[in-house]
Write a structure and sequence with these properties.
This protein folds into five domains: 182 residues, Rossmann fold, CATH 3.40.50.300; 75 residues, Arc Repressor Mutant, subunit A (Orthogonal Bundle); 175 residues, 3-Layer(aba) Sandwich (Rossmann fold), CATH 3.40.50.300; 152 residues, PCRA, domain 4; 40 residues. 47% of the residues lie in helices and 16% in strands. The protein contains 31 helices and 26 strands. The longest helix is centred in the middle third of the chain and has 24 residues. It is globular and about 80 Å long. The structure holds adenosine-5'-triphosphate (ATP) and magnesium ion. Magnesium ion binds next to helix 2. GO terms for molecular function: 3'-5' DNA helicase activity; ATP binding; ATP hydrolysis activity; DNA binding.
Length: 740
């Protein structure tokens, strides 16, 4: 087999990992050493050597995006798309298993998967009898506790007093139990349940377990360092054949363990040899992704962590010499976005494809300024990860309509939309519906039918609710006849939901209507409404499929396993990265995890990595001065170009106390050119040229005097009629051109 083309160009260690198909195998290796490539090639090798059929290999990836990429890679190697693969994230694979055996845990095969929003609504109802002080014990904290329990495979019965918590006055366990039984009543489960239920089934139904153990001749797991306890239990149950440990191959890197906050246990790697006796371990040391400079910078940084397994990482590419890692200081987040976009534009103009750029942020809030700037400059981009599109309120409403359309028992969906648009359903009417539903032991939708029949509602709202109910009856018929795209369109139209947004005079209403149009467009890509809803529940990354010609904007967590020619890493400031909250909660251990995250970030880059930090950052409405991240000092000097940083630091010292956003940030943009970077004083010719053009009639903003209109201008100064402060003569460089 070694002569097959799919094994070309692999190094001896990689070949060993691919050809050791039988028995347990752990590949422990640093970033970019070809772990994922080994896994993919191993899959192809198993098929091409007739060891198994495509559906007899269980492959676990960490994101849907990774699953898609792997599916494509396998299709390329095989020369055709493979059908019926068990390839996906833990959650997607478990959802598929659970649909087959739902009755063993008291669900139907059509069970609903709740998202966080639904979970919160449900939890709110469930906790009512306990009268929890939600100021003291916020509900999302409670939800977090429940999720951690689920991550660890604990059902309410399994929680010992030692594992209990004081949270919610010690009622967390009881609330968890009530929450679980409510989910069952609703024929629903949350994300954590997908795993929890399947593990329970595998544990209690030996016949089912055996069926899967026989089915999966080979198991492949990527990013093994980030599996949590329940995922690990699931793997261990499946990875046996006739009492023997099966052919399980896990690949991972302890330095990239970044999900401990979600219950991941890096110890799972350390336990591998114990759990799977006779396990082989392969180490890969050549990095084929990044230049020597990028690797050197990343290695120097991660060396500051203690308790590492320790791995060697050598540049493996022939052309591994490249640029130094750039560190750039900027004034604020707007300047940061301008800086990154202008760098992207330059490279783009020189022929670098947009799909090869990534902006990797520590926290979701950071994306906004980049999105705005990218839109302004017309650079196509996509936000990868985190249900962005589907999270928008109007999309969630429309989805609730769809859910209720195919499942009249979906009470959460019913509650969300019964009064959207307004149908006069206040708390009293809702209470009435709930009482009726309880009495009838039926859903809210059926309670509504019953109440309409018995004239339980009066006046206008009776009429509107009758229309609401009638509309669902009509569209269900239409669904049968005309299919889901037509039916959903009609439902949103006839229910008055679209009309509600057309009537809405707020500036964001047109955009929302566009989103709804887009949603209906997306429906056509799916065979049935059920498939579409399943897709939404599972697909965490909102990126479109063939949108290669776009800059990717995403969180560092979402970038795991990916690679780009050029990577921008903004926001390297104390409090942002490392994140203040994480450090407050987790101390030194948390700093180490943040450092691993930084390591993941740098090692995504093939050729160019630029790290940015801003001198000021707005946290809510307040400006704060910020300190450069400690990680910047930890980068070894020999691999880093700090010219763009010293300019800012120096300028900041010279001009501290002044607030001059426009001049300052442009000064920093200018730092790209070495000439400007060396100048110590921002007030000079080059910079003056960067001051916004102040002409009579321009609307401007001044940090001290607020908004005003320029009524006179000459070189360097301007006379401005301020709205509040009256007419004043000020330095033009202190003015920003204000939007309308
Ligand atoms: P990460 O830890 O970031 O997930 P990884 O170990 O999974 O990284 P891969 O993504 O599999 O690494 O590989 C990194 C890059 O190196 C890919 O572009 C891959 O195609 C390339 N590569 C891997 N092995 C070789 C090889 N033997 N020769 C040339 N290129 C290789
Ligand atoms: Mg990988």
């Amino acid at each position: 087999m070694t002569t097959s083309s799919h094994l070309d160009r692999l190094n001896p260690e990689q070949l060993a990992a691919i050809e050791t198909t039988e028995g347990p195998l752990l590949v422990l290796a640093g970033a970019g050493t070809g772990k994922t490539r080994v896994l993919t090639t191993r899959f192809a090798h198993i098929l091409l050597s007739y060891r198994a059929k495509p559906w007899q290999v269980l492959t676990v990836t960490f994101t849907n995006k990774a699953a898609r990429e792997m599916r494509e890679r396998i299709a390329r190697i095989l020369g055709e798309p493979a059908e019926g693969l068990w390839l996906g994230t833990f959650h997607a694979l478990c959802a598929r298993m659970l649909r087959r055996h739902a009755e063993y845990v008291g669900l139907t095969s059509g069970f609903l998967i709740l998202d966080t929003d639904d979970q919160m609504r449900l939890l709110k109802q469930v906790v009512e009898p306990w009268r929890i002080d939600v100021k003291r014990w916020p509900l999302n904290g409670l939800l977090g506790i429940i999720q951690r329990w689920k991550d660890r495979g604990l059902t309410p019965d399994g929680i010992t007093p030692a594992e209990s918590t004081d949270y919610a006055d010690g009622h967390a366990r009881a609330i968890y139990a009530a929450y679980q039984s409510r989910l069952r009543e609703l024929d629903a489960c949350d994300f954590g349940d997908l795993m929890l239920h399947v593990v329970e089934i595998l544990r209690t139904r030996p016949d089912v377990l055996e069926q899967y153990q026989r089915l999966f001749r080979y198991i492949l797991v990527d990013e093994y360092q980030d599996t949590n306890t329940i995922q690990y239990l699931w793997l261990r149950l499946l990875a046996r054949r006739e009492g023997e440990p099966a052919n399980i191959c896990c690949v991972g890197d302890d330095d990239q363990s970044i999900y401990s906050w979600r219950g991941a246990e890096v110890e799972n790697i350390l336990r591998f040899e114990k759990d799977f006796p006779g396990a082989k371990i392969v180490r890969l040391e050549r990095n084929y992704r990044s230049t020597a400079q990028i690797l050197g910078a990343a290695a120097g940084l991660i060396a500051h962590n203690e308790g590492r397994l320790g791995k060697t990482l050598r540049p493996g590419r022939d052309d591994a010499q490249g640029e130094l890692v750039h560190v750039v200081g900027v004034w604020d987040s707007d300047a940061e976005a301008r800086e990154v976009c202008s760098r992207i534009e330059n490279l783009w103009r020189n022929g670098h494809p947009l799909g090869e750029f990534a902006i990797l942020v520590r926290a979701g809030f950071q994306t906004r300024s980049f999105e705005e700037r990218l839109v302004q400059t017309g650079i196509p981009y996509r936000i990868v990860g985190g249900l962005r599109f589907y999270e928008r309120a109007e999309i969630r409403d429309a989805i609730a309509y769809m859910r209720l359309l195919i499942n009249p028992a979906d009470d959460l969906a019913f509650e969300r939309i019964v009064n959207l648009p307004k149908r006069g359903v206040g708390p009293a009417a809702l209470q009435k519906l709930h009482a009726q539903a309880r009495g009838q032991k039926a859903s809210l939708y059926m309670a509504l039918e019953a109440l309409l029949e018995t004239k339980g509602f009066k006046g206008k709202s009776a009429e509107k609710l009758a229309d609401f109910q009638d509309c669902f009856v009509q569209q269900r018929a239409l669904l049968e006849k005309e299919g889901h795209v037509v039916a959903v369109g009609a439902l949103l139209e006839e229910s008055g939901y679209l009309e509600m947004w057309r009537e809405d005079k707020s500036p964001d209403a047109p955009g929302r209507l566009d989103n709804l149009k887009e949603l209906i467009r997306a429906l056509a890509d799916f065979g049935t409404l059920g498939e579409f809803l399943e897709h939404i529940a599972l697909v965490m990354d909102a990126e479109g499929t063939n949108e290669d010609e776009r800059v990717s904007v995403m969180t560092l967590h979402g970038a795991k396993g990916l690679e780009f020619d050029t990577v921008y890493l903004p926001g390297w400031e104390e409090g942002v990265f490392p994140s203040q909250r994480t450090v407050d909660e987790g101390g030194d251990k948390a700093v180490e995890e943040e450092r691993r995250l930084a390591y993941v970030g740098i090692t995504r880059a093939r050729y160019r990595a630029t790290i940015l930090h801003a001198a000021n950052r707005r946290i809510y409405a307040n400006w704060q001065e910020s300190m450069p991240s400690r990680f910047l000092d930890e980068l070894p000097d020999e691999y880093v170009d700090r010219a763009g940083e010293t300019a800012t630091r120096q300028a900041r010292q010279d001009y501290s106390g002044f607030f001059r956003p426009s001049v300052f940030s442009d000064a920093v943009t200018g730092s790209m050119s070495p000439l400007v970077a060396k100048k110590r004083h921002p007030v000079n010719e080059e910079l003056a040229a960067n001051v916004p053009k102040i002409e009579v009639g321009t609307r401007v903003f001044h940090q001290k005097f607020g908004y005003g209109m320029v009524i006179g201008a000459d070189r360097g100064s301007a006379e401005v009629a301020f709205e509040k402060a009256g007419t004043k003569r000020v330095m033009a460089s202190y003015l920003q051109v204000a939007g309308e």
